[in-house]
Write a structure and sequence with these properties.
With 375 residues, the protein is an alpha/beta fold. Helices cover 39% and strands 15% of the residues. The strands form 4 sheets. A 6-stranded parallel β-sheet has the order 3-2-4-5-6-13, with helices on both faces. Helix 6 (189-207) links the parallel strand 7 and strand 8 (210-211). Helix 3 runs parallel beside helix 4. Residues 1-35 have low confidence and may be disordered. The structure holds beta-D-glucopyranose. Beta-D-glucopyranose binds at residues 58, 60, 135-136, 183, 187, 189, 227, 259, 261, 286-287, 307.
Length: 375
């Protein structure tokens, strides 16, 4: 079995099949003509996949875990799904160690701290257990075989573009006041979310069309530990007070928020300072969490990036399936994601944005939410 996995990984490294995201082939499709039974190892046993998720306190990771488990089981695999408490790094490390000692045939990991798994994954490497980095890139480990995620840079540029277009920065006189909020500094995705958004917004800051009155423009200043709503709210309350923002005071035109949990904290701070749907700044988000979509409908949040967790689970299950069956998984990016040991072949899914004008078709017609979920 392990020899076969190694062969698959080498085949994958040598013959990367570059394809577009969103292909609709069945999860059990394989290019290997001597295909095994669903989810079966070459020893004829059912392969076991360890799935490690960071927290159950955010809606998206619950959905990710549920989708992964369902789709892997449908493809015939056994699944060991573990959540690491509420973003508890030692818990995640020991859960992964147990998956390795419990002889999982492959690991799918959404890391809390991308750099905290180097030691734990040495065991996976020794036992030739392939590791797929899920959504967030695991750094500094040569045990990582593949990466399945959304186009994280595009998430950032879409947020920046939304603000640019909403304020009509290319035509309006301005200047406009903006503040910047991003996520956990130990999450590699932040580099892409914040970097992508700033690639769009920085030229307007440089020209003076956009002003950041708090002066907090560095990624480290705008970071939010653990993507915590409470931390984002506290930081924003301080900014409101120190800059003197208010519905009848200094005007705030936009807040770049890298995701929904931080965006929710910012919205709480603004609502408490007297803002309402009629005078809220443009506020971005990511994930289309239910409370945030409700706020979009209510006019409190402007937009959120929709990353359909069903699509990511589908792409990841196909990767797992290919590896277990000894074939090369599909990837569509072999340049962007270097984890410190080299570029990790990646499969990037496409994000889209949702706002009050299109959320029904994107979120309800697609079956992601029901009307009742958002009522
Ligand atoms: C994910 C986002 C999520 C954030 C907080 C990021 O790594 O890509 O979708 O909002 O973590 O959980």
């Amino acid at each position: 079995m392990k020899k076969r996995l190694l062969a698959a990984l080498m085949a994958g490294a040598m013959a990367l099949s570059l394809t577009a995201c969103g292909g609709g082939s069945d999860a059990n499709t394989t290019t290997d003509s001597s295909a095994q039974a669903e989810g079966a190892t070459d020893a004829g046993t059912t392969a076991k996949i360890g799935v490690s998720m960071p927290t159950q306190s955010l809606q998206r990771w619950n959905q990710d875990g549920t989708n992964m488990k369902q789709q892997l089981e449908t493809a015939g695999y056994q699944v060991d799904l573990q959540y690491a408490g509420d973003n508890d790094i030692p818990t995640q490390v020991s859960q992964i160690e147990n998956m390795i000692s419990g002889d999982c045939d492959a690991l799918v990991i959404a890391a809390i701290d991308g750099s905290a798994l180097t030691e734990a994954l040495k065991g996976a490497k020794e036992k030739n257990i392939p590791v797929i980095s899920y959504d967030r890139l695991i750094m500094n480990s040569d045990a990582v075989s593949y990466y399945a995620t959304f186009d994280n840079y595009k998430v950032g540029t879409m947020q920046g573009e939304y603000i640019r277009d909403a304020l009509d920065l290319d035509n309006a006189a301005g200047p406009f006041n903006i503040e910047l909020v991003t996520g956990a500094p130990d999450d590699n995705n932040v580099n892409f979310f914040f970097g992508g958004a700033m690639d769009i917004l920085q030229p307007y800051i440089d020209s003076g069309k956009l002003v950041v009155p708090s002066g907090q423009t560095e990624k480290a200043q705008c970071a939010t530990a653990n993507w915590s709503t409470e931390e984002a709210q506290k930081r924003f309350e301080n900014i409101i007070t120190s800059v003197g923002y208010g519905p009848d005071a200094k005007k705030l035109d936009a807040v770049l928020c890298s995701n929904d949990s931080t965006s929710y904290g910012v919205q709480n701070a603004l609502l408490a300072a007297g803002y309402n749907k009629d005078n809220m700044p443009v506020i971005t988000g990511q994930d289309c969490d239910k409370p945030n979509v409700k706020n979009i409908i209510a006019g409190v949040q402007s937009m959120s990036i929709f990353k359909d967790t069903r699509t990511l689970a589908d792409a990841t299950v196909k990767m797992v399936d290919a590896i277990i069956k000894g074939t090369a998984p599909e990837v569509n990016d072999t340049e962007t994601y270097d984890n410190g040991t080299g570029v990790i072949p990646s499969y990037l899914c496409d994000p889209v944005f949702a706002d009050k004008d299109n959320y029904k078709s994107i979120l309800i017609d697609s079956g992601y939410y029901t009307e009742a979920d958002l009522a």
